[in-house]
């Protein structure tokens, strides 16, 4: 009986973790964002990084979004650092080699990300 309870508990925990991961991956991860159409591209002052901004058309039922992709030109790796819903404009400028301003949001490309889903609603 004890063995059955332990196996049931372990199975329930495993299923719960799996469901939690799937929900995170599809609804909260910045690695699974829609691609969009490239609208702006700008290199950092020292050419170490490139920011690509994409306009994502959500179709008839959702508004436009802007996705910002950071490319590390030394390692050729990329990651999403900006995701904003209800935006169609794309203002982009570098403050210095590691700080960028995207549509009024200042980000340190080494550590910061902006994701509208994680900001407080006003």
Task: Please provide a written account of the structure.
The protein has 1 helix and 8 strands; from the N terminus they run H-E-E-E-E-E-E-E-E. It is of the alpha+beta class. Strand 5 and strand 6 form a beta hairpin. It has a 5-stranded mixed beta sheet, with no helix packed on it. The protein has 2 domains: 1-32; 34-118, no CATH class. 21% of the residues lie in helices and 37% in strands. It has one helix at 2-27; strands spanning 37-43, 49-56, 65-72, 77-85, 92-94, 99-102, 105-108, 114-115.
How would you sum up this structure in a few lines?
Helices cover 21% and strands 37% of the residues. It has 122 residues and is an alpha+beta fold.
